[in-house]
Amino acid sequence: MKKITVIRTDLPDKFGLPRQSGLVPELRGRIVFEPEYRNPDALRGIEGFSHIWIIWQFSRNMNSKWSPTVRPPRLGGDTRMGVFATRSPFRPNPLGLSCVKLEAVRIGKDGPELEVSGIDMADNTPIYDIKPYLPYTDSHPDALSGFAGDYTDYGLQVSASDELISIVPPEHRKALFGILSNDPRPSYQHDDERIYGLSFAGFNIKFTVSGSLLTVREITPSDENVK
Amino acid sequence: MKKITVIRTDLPDKFGLPRQSGLVPELRGRIVFEPEYRNPDALRGIEGFSHIWIIWQFSRNMNSKWSPTVRPPRLGGDTRMGVFATRSPFRPNPLGLSCVKLEAVRIGKDGPELEVSGIDMADNTPIYDIKPYLPYTDSHPDALSGFAGDYTDYGLQVSASDELISIVPPEHRKALFGILSNDPRPSYQHDDERIYGLSFAGFNIKFTVSGSLLTVREITPSDENVK
Question: With a cut of 0.85, is the ipTM above it?
Answer without folding.
Answer: yes
